[in-house]
């Protein structure tokens, strides 16, 4: 593909994306997600209205510990340092496990992806780890090879992972090339004008050396408009460069694996629990800090932002590197949170493949037995999670699930959601094009949604600020049966390392809105059970009455009722949830 065609594709992609997403070329109140649709004109969750009209003469009855299982939290942030969970049974810095829980000096939480040797910053995608295990075993296998039932399952997983790997690598390679060219032009124009960031006027005046650079100028102008200014677009391009650089160097690199060196656990032992270190910030605390601020940034210090909950302690648990989290670490993170008093666990992460799901299922059941609510982000791929696999999830891999799988009577290979060209089984897919995978039309079998699952789980999609056809955030995953609610997750301002604040997008931001709301409810109504909190949040949503736009699996922009995108058919609402909680409490 010639460079100018790649650039033209990128430009058309930007234009098509902006056609069905809410504009960023707008100045929003920094706390719009806490505002009220009727009173303020933004589709927030009415947090401030609830504080003013329902809670002004009430005091919280308990402080609620919310565990943030993420990539790290800045414990020195000006708006977070006073709302951190502190393990009072530990003496800081003495190198002794004072409370005897197996974790030395776990003052504000624990880091399961580190050791005395340092911290794991990067990791592969789960599908790459699968290829590393099954590649040597099945790289020479063809369809006529005789396999037993277990081998058929493994071979099917290998083929699926290998096909997706090829597509992801191609997409990352092309996108990295585009982003590199855009950054080169931005930096060149900035240097010519002795500026750190060029203005749009500087871009317009820049005389392109060739047709390719002229196309880049169009991309910069269009992207700046969609992003709300060239300053934001410039930052997005720098972030994108880093993201795709990490993707190619680490996430999609089959040869990269520093787990043993930097964590040092016995990874084959999924039941192992005592490993890690107490560095809960880690090398990159941006994502986890942002999540934490949404939940509970100090509401009484007159600086920064106001979190949703006003009587909350943030427990920092690090299990997510830049790459896919590992099931063993997720399970241990959940257990640590439960054992140390968390009542809500926020999980703003996810992946398309599982490895040790049974150990995660056991941890989820443990949380369920101990009365702990789990809040999970639905994901940012604009995919239907009723069809597309998304982990972790609320469903348990047990005898019933195995019986269901057997009952559908499909050969493991024919059950794949796409057709695989045979020669893809012969290589690692790095040179295969996107056309090597042909997507079938998805068919939803609702019987699987009746399989055993956790009652303490809320799955959250992301919404935007305006009550119009673009209310669903364009990136958000959805699911009529598996996404419970939507919450604000677009242009969300919150805490980032260094006592700073930035706007992020994602279901990663929507989930902590629901976690914060859950903590708010529990702080005033401490006797409620997790399933009751879940029910209250779902029953009290602000129903979306108009049809909304999204791109379906065939790339068509369609309008559907919001109830086709999630179980509740609405956006969470703190004001209505607290009113309903009062009625539950009085029963």
Task: Describe what you observe in this structure.
The protein has 16 helices and 17 strands. It has 587 residues and is an alpha/beta fold. The strands form six sheets. It has a seven-stranded parallel sheet with strand order 2-5-1-6-7-10-11, sandwiched between helices. A two-stranded antiparallel sheet has the order 3-4. The chain has a two-stranded antiparallel sheet with strand order 8-9. A hairpin with a 5-residue loop joins β15 and β16 (557-560). The longest helix has 44 residues, at 149-192. The chain is globular, with a radius of gyration of 24 Å. The model is unreliable at 1-9, 11-19 and 411-439 (pLDDT under 50). GO terms for molecular function: hydrolase activity. Its EC number is 3.4.-.-. Residues 62-544 form the Peptidase S8/S53 domain. InterPro entries: Peptidase_S8/S53_dom (IPR000209), Peptidase_S8/S53_dom_sf (IPR036852), Peptidase_S8/S53_subtilisin (IPR051048), Peptidase_S8_His-AS (IPR022398), Peptidase_S8_Ser-AS (IPR023828), Peptidase_S8_subtilisin-rel (IPR015500), Protease_P7-like_dom (IPR034080).
């Amino acid at each position: 593909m010639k460079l100018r065609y790649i650039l033209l594709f990128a430009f058309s992609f930007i234009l098509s994306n902006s056609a069905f997403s809410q504009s960023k070329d707008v100045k929003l109140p920094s706390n719009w997600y806490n505002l009220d649709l009727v009173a303020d004109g933004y589709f927030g969750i009415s947090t401030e209205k609830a504080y003013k009209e329902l809670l002004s003469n009430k005091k919280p009855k308990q402080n609620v510990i919310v565990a943030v299982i993420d990539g790290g939290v800045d414990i020195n942030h000006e708006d977070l340092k006073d709302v951190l969970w502190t393990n009072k049974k530990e003496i800081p810095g003495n190198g002794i496990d004072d409370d005897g829980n197996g974790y030395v000096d776990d003052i504000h939480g624990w880091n399961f992806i580190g050791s005395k040797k340092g911290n794991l910053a990067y990791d592969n995608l789960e599908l790459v780890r699968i290829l590393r295990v099954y590649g040597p075993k099945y790289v020479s296998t063809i369809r006529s090879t005789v396999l037993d039932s277990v081998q058929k399952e493994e071979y099917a997983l290998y083929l699926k992972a290998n096909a997706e790997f090829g597509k992801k690598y191609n997409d990352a390679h092309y996108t990295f090339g585009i982003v590199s060219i855009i950054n080169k032009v931005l930096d060149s124009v900035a240097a010519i004008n002795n500026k750190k960031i060029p203005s749009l006027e500087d871009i317009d005046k820049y005389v392109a050396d060739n047709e390719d650079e002229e196309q880049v100028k169009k991309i910069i102008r269009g992207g700046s408009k969609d992003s709300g200014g060239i300053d934001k677009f410039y930052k997005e391009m720098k972030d994108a460069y880093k993201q795709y650089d990490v993707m190619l160097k680490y996430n999609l690199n089959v040869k990269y694996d520093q787990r043993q060196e930097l964590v040092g656990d016995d990874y084959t032992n999924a039941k192992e629990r005592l490993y890690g270190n107490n560095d809960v910030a880690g090398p990159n605390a941006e994502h986890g800090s942002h999540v934490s601020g949404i939940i509970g940034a100090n509401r009484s210090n007159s600086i920064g932002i106001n979190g949703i909950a006003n009587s909350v302690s943030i427990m920092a648990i690090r299990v997510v590197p830049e790459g896919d989290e590992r099931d063993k670490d997720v399970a241990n993170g959940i257990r640590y949170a439960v054992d140390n008093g968390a009542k809500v666990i926020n999980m703003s992460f996810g992946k398309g493949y599982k490895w040790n799901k049974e150990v995660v299922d056991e941890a989820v059941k443990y949380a369920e037995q101990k009365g702990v609510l789990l809040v999970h982000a639905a994901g940012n791929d604009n995919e239907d999670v009723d069809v597309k696999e998304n982990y972790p999830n609320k469903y348990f891999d047990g005898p019933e699930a195995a019986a269901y799988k057997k009952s559908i009577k499909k050969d493991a290979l024919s059950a794949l959601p796409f057709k695989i060209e045979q020669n893809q089984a012969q290589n690692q897919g790095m040179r295969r094009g996107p056309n090597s995978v042909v997507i079938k039309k998805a068919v939803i079998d609702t019987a699987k949604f009746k399989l055993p699952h956790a009652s303490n789980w809320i799955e959250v999609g992301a919404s935007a600020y305006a009550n119009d056809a673009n209310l669903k955030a364009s990136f958000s995953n959805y699911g009529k049966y598996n996404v419970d609610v939507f919450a604000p997750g677009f242009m969300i301002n919150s805490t980032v390392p260094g006592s700073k604040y930035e706007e992020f997008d994602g279901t990663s931001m929507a989930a902590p809105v629901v976690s914060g709301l859950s903590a708010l409810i529990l702080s005033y109504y401490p006797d409620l059970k997790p399933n009751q909190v879940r029910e209250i949040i779902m029953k009290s949503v602000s129903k979306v009455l108009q049809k909304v736009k999204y791109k379906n699996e065939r790339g068509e922009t369609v309008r559907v009722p919001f109830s086709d995108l999630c179980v509740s058919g609405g956006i969470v609402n703190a004001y209505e949830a607290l009113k309903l909680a009062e009625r539950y409490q009085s029963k």
